[in-house]
Specification:
single chain; about 290 residues; alpha/beta; Rossmann fold; 2 domains; 8-stranded mixed β-sheet; 3-stranded antiparallel β-sheet; 8 helices; about 20% helix; about 25% strand; globular
């Protein structure tokens, strides 16, 4: 289904948000859009909202399974604005957001759907799932100058760490951490400090008054916690080419980076087990 824009969707198509989980995919460029849509379709999302520029062309079989919303995703604050507008009309629905060339993985995703994940999470009285954005990059930048290759994707197997998140008074917040690592850590001189975190609350249940902020956190502090008070919860991973693409498309960094590979690079096998083994997500009590 194709709409005239976000306002048209909110006025005429919001009924599709009645049953989740619903994925929102923000298309920033035309790289790997089809694979992103297909990956999340296969993950089991009930509906797929694709916010995209008019220049995007998709096969008919994909156009039929998405709700396409023409949208300028590269404007400052565009993603948060759209997510918050969707939240307003979808109270109680589980939502997820990502960008093109990003791929969601959760524990056991090969045999369990995203719907099963959020159903379990809801049983644990949790309304948000912490996700780590793990950078992917092509091994050979001469062969893949935009740093994107599904067949030759690599990731860092170590170099991740967390710091206690502080409030306005400098006190450590309860059960909140800022996570770092990957390309944003290794090439931090090219990344503004406010964009170096790799944690994102990308799976959440909408509720009245909930607002997504520019740093990928919410105005409800419990949504920003990595675990409930009594035990660890499920976490998930977004395997993402987004940072690698940006570093290679930016004139200020591209010539400083002949390769992203280093001694801690390992080829990504596109499995949840590899991410579990590397400690990049955990099943919590979901066995």
């Amino acid at each position: 289904m194709r709409y005239q824009g976000l306002t048209d969707f909110l006025n005429t198509g919001a009924k599709v948000l009645a049953k989740g989980p619903v994925a929102m995919i923000f298309v920033e460029d035309l790289v790997e859009v089809e694979s992103t849509i297909t990956h999340h379709q296969n993950a089991g999302f009930a509906e797929l909202l694709v916010f995209s520029p008019d220049a995007l062309e998709l096969p008919d079989e994909l156009e039929r399974v998405i709700h396409r919303i023409p949208y300028s995703t590269t404007r400052a604050g565009a993603m948060e604005h759209a997510v918050n507008k969707i939240i307003e009309v979808a109270p109680g629905t589980w939502l997820y957001y990502c960008f093109n060339a990003e791929y969601l993985f959760h524990p056991f995703c090969e045999t369990r759907s995203i719907g099963e994940l959020v159903a379990f999470h809801a049983e644990e009285r949790r309304d948000a799932v912490l996700t780590y954005v793990v950078d992917l990059y092509a091994d050979d930048l001469a062969q893949h100058p935009d740093a994107v290759s599904l067949e030759h994707a690599y990731l860092d197997k170590s170099g991740y760490y967390a710091l206690g998140r502080k409030d306005e008074l400098g006190e450590i917040k309860d059960r909140q951490l800022d996570f770092f690592g990957g390309l944003r850590w290794r090439f931090e001189e090219h990344i503004p400090p406010v964009r170096r975190k790799i944690d994102r609350i990308s799976i959440f249940r909408a509720q009245k008054g909930l607002r997504l902020r520019a740093d990928h956190t919410f105005n409800d502090e419990e949504y920003n916690t990595f675990a409930c008070p009594w035990h660890n919860n499920v976490t998930a991973t977004i395997a993402s080419f987004r940072t690698a693409k940006a570093l290679k498309s930016n004139a200020g960094s591209t010539f400083d980076i002949p390769t992203f590979k280093w001694h801690n690079s390992v080829q990504f096998d596109w499995s949840s087990q590899q991410l579990l083994d590397l400690g990049l997500m955990e099943p919590g009590q979901w066995f």
